């Protein structure tokens, strides 16, 4: 067909295919959690297994039936065969270690959580080991289990000695690697004006609410009553440990500065630092310690692995970090702290 001389117009399209930028590798926290829990479980079972081997070596030195339970005065009031007693101890260790390891795998987003759960797993195995050795050790050379005596200081040792391997294993769990972000803080996140040329921006101290104090005092008082009732002053180690635990987990200093957020116990441990370049955003949420975390103090949410420093019901600072991690801290002025942290995070962006 002949052209009529009119110019021909052609629409030209050029398709540009741009290769997507590689996404940042997600933090493989689950793999880290599994490794930490496997190491802890292996250590716990090694301790319990060694105790079982020692118990078998003592078999000829023990009564036909061994004392398996003592009353409040330290007098045996129940017996069972050695095999059954060892089996019960092993089942106890298996149940406790697998339960706590499962929690660690499910909620171990943070290194602090993995360390805590690894320590608890090892303590559980050590508890089973010391319980078995102490209970059978006081019966060696006896023909009648009713003659066995279990002094209070040995009961305290059963609880405290397993802390040694637990602390060692917890300390060996690696810290989280740095995971800075360059993504801007969302525009809808609250901000607060930062003073220029200053290091410390804001600092406050937080303490327990009424509910936490009542629970802590009740637990310590109950332990004292038990120690007095059985006439074993060694058991006062238990309330003393409870008081130390309360001091470590119910009083904190919260500090916001150019480096980010630091939450530190009055005893120095536990503590956590959220670097400014790892803060995704900070907001205010309402928290009920018992309903949301199952209690007061330094807690871990099993559903999403968030760490909580929750001492009372009310407003709390929620800090979202890279890697899907979250930190919740109950504060009187949570809104101001959230605004400061978002502004600090803005400054930390390149």
Automatic annotation (TrEMBL):
Entry annotated with the keyword Transmembrane helix: yes
Residue intervals of the DUF1648 domain: 47-87
Family annotation (InterPro entries): DUF1648
Pfam families, per the entry: DUF1648
Top-level taxon of the source organism: Bacteria
Keywords linked to the UniProt accession: Membrane, Transmembrane, Transmembrane helix
Record region (Disordered): 179-198
Keyword Lyase annotated: no
Protein name, as recorded: DUF1648 domain-containing protein
